[in-house]
Amino acid sequence: IQSGRIxxxxxxxxxxxxxKTTVARILARCLNCIQGPTATPCGVCSACIEIxxxxxxxxxxxxxxxxxxxxxxxxxxxxxxxxxARDRYKIFIxxxxxxxxxxxxxxxxxxxxxxxxxxxxxxCTTEANEIPNTIASRCQHFTFRSVDFAEIMKRMKxxxxxxxxxxxxxxxxxxxxxxxxxxxxxxxxxxxxxxxCGKT
Length: 200
Description:
200 residues; alpha/beta; 8 helices
């Protein structure tokens, strides 16, 4: 963004719970913020607020697990032709992108080959090897590593303080290990522990 080299297609891959979809939403904010494209979105303009709340007209989130067919991709292809309603870019965030069928990928390929200047696709996937090469070669690929143990601990301490939960470092480290580098899995384990043990 800072160098003004914004691609029309991105692939975010990595294990579950490492922030792929979250970063996709942050990128959407960066591109559509009223002060943007900027690496530091303001968070207070209507574009930032709506993207954060998940109800922006120009940021379309698709769960490929349930919308994987050719008809859905044709619908996207139709949608791509129209300019954004208000924002700078029309951004399609496709979650679980590896679930898209081969025929549907072929329908999407045409759009990625010659995208209008206002369109950005972000494909999030845990299985990057399932994305066809024809698609991958037209996208910038970023791999998300599992999150550092110390970072997960820091996050869990922050949440424990916010929730008024008393938890020793030893307990939190066991919960953090249970997540195996996935923030979401560690937080699910923490939720379960709070459900069982209450405030302590």
